[in-house]
Every structure is written in structure tokens, then in C-alpha cells.
Amino acid sequence: MSIERNHHTTVIDGGFSTQLAEYVGSNIDGDPLWSARFNAVQPEAVIQAHLDFLNAGAEIILTNTYQASIQGYKEYLKLNDEESYELIKSTVKLAHVARDKYISSNCENTNLKRPLIFASIGPYGAHLHDGSEYTGSYENKVSVGTIKKWHKVRIQACIEAGVDGLAIETIPCLMEARAVVDLLLEEYPDVKFWVSFQCKDGNAVANGDSFSESVRSICKQVEAARKRQNLVAVGINCIQPGFVTELFKEVEKEVQDFNIPLVVYPNSGEVYTVEEGWHGKNDCKPLEEYIEEWIKLGAGYIGGCCRTNANDIRKIKEEIDALKN
Fold it and tell me: Which residues bind Zn(2+) (predicted)?
């Protein structure tokens, strides 16, 4: 399966920690390594979570590397630099194992398309474990050079292990997005990637940057480097689904000017509070009911983020197939 800019809407997987919790329990949230701990302690559960999404119809699965970092593994798993680096690489291989199992179990399906594996590259703030990944408050505290250096090691490990592309995701500020894109254009000129922002409402990125201006900035950045073909999509994730339509309407001109698909993988719609945790699931509008509108606005890649599981992805896939037919 190749990445093409056409009318096909590609299904991404869902909230990895949500599906992983089916096998490891609910002790993921609050862990300083989040789901990344289980790459070391329960790798079979990681493989099974990937398989669940593939069996549900995901055409792209993301590696369980969102919160994987050299610093995090050194501090919380007591690994050294080399061991931490190899753990990130082996995490990518878990996705390969899942894909191989999926293909093997569907070998009689002559129409089966080979799912893609994208490396999940979460924001710098995720490893700080202080909530700043949702605010971008570190943008004025660390340099662009620091951001690039931190991301480079994990990106290099994922690329060495073998991925079809990179999901630069949950990025809370334009500064970090531009820094990572600059790194990719300079040092990994053949790598495909998408950039997905974390937004706080219907018009702004988490730190307050304009979403439409951020999207335009990234598109102009890759065009200036003559690497437009590397940018698979731009968009949003880890957001309340009710904000998506408004955000997509904000970038209608950018979508047309740059002929770029949008990527979206929102949360379930549940609300999180420190006192109650996640709640309100029964009040959430099913994600599949948003799909037609999002596709009309330019969504070429759709999946789920926090609190979405394989069943949600199955429903999204069924809705997309129904619209196609």
C-alpha cells in the first residue's frame, strides 16, 4: 500500500494505551513512561494491541513510541543509552511482528493491502511528565537546537528499525513543529511524515498559535525545501471531536492552496479531570457520525486517540467503506 494523494480515506489505528489496557490493566495513566513501559515488560501485549487495530481495519498502525525516550528509559527503567536506544528499535519491531501475523492470517485474501507502520513521534513535553505536552509551555524555555537534538535520537532509532513514515503528533506549538520538520528535511530527506497539532479549541494550537497559520507555515516550509512530496498530511489529534469541523474550516484555503490532505484522530469525546478521571462516555457522539463531514472538508487520514479502541476503529472503517460505496 503506497501513500498517494487521491480520494481514498485511510484508516489509522486508535488510542494505543486504551487498547493496551485490555491486556495490562488500567495502570497506564500516571506512569511516567505511560504505555512505553510495556515495550520492555509486556511486549506480547503490545503486539496484541497492534493486532487488534489491524483486525479492526486499520490501514496504518503507529508504533508504541509516543513517550519513549532515552532519558525516560534511563531514569525509570535504569537502562543505559545503548539499551534505551535498542529498546526503541525493538518497539518498532513489535509493530512489524503484528503486521506479519496479520498478513499471515489473511494470506488467502487476494485483495489484502499491506498495512503501513508509522513511528509515533510525540512532543518534547511528553517526556517531562508535567502536562506541558498539552500547553507547549516549554517553547520559551528550551532552544530549537535542544528540541532537534532530543527528537533526532528517537527518530533515528525508528528509521533504523524500519518504518513507512513518521507521525509527528500531538505537537502543542509551531516552534516545535518547525524544528522537527527542519530536522527531517535536513537529515532524513527521503522520509515521509505527517504533522499533527494538539489544539485547545476550534482555532488555536495548544499554546495559542493560530492553527491555520501553523498549517500554512509547515506547508510553506516543505515547499521551500522542495520536499512537498514528503509531507503526507497536516492536521490534529488528541482533541475533542466537536472542535474538528471548525478547525478544518479554518484551513480550507491552505488545503486548496497546497493540495494537502488533512489527518485527524480525535479523542472519544470523554472529559478528563484529576478528581474523576475519564468520564462522560455515554454522552459522547459516536466518532463515526462525524466522518462524512470531515471527509468533505479534506480528511484523508482518520483514526482515534485517547479513549478510543479497536471497536471504534472498526466503526470508523465501516462508515468510510459505506460512504465509498
Answer: 238, 305-306
For residues 56 and 219, give the distance between their C-alpha atoms in angstroms, rounded to a whole number: 32
Q: Annotation-wise, does 173 bind a ligand?
A: no
Give per-residue pLDDT as tens, 185-230. Answer: 999 999 999 999 999 999 999 999 999 999 999 999 999 999 989 9
pTM: 0.95
60, 68, 262 from 9: Cα distances, Å: 11, 29, 10
Opening angle at CA 129, ends 128 and 133, nearest 5: 75
- Residues sharing a CB contact under 8 Å with residue 108, sequence separation 6 or more, in sequence order: none
Helix (H), strand (E) at residue 234: strand 231-237
306 carries a ligand binding annotation: yes
Q: Report how far residue 218's alpha carbon sits from residue 187's, in angstroms, rounded to the nearest whole number.
A: 17
Find out whether 158 is annotated in a ligand binding site: no
Cα distance between the two ends of the chain: 20
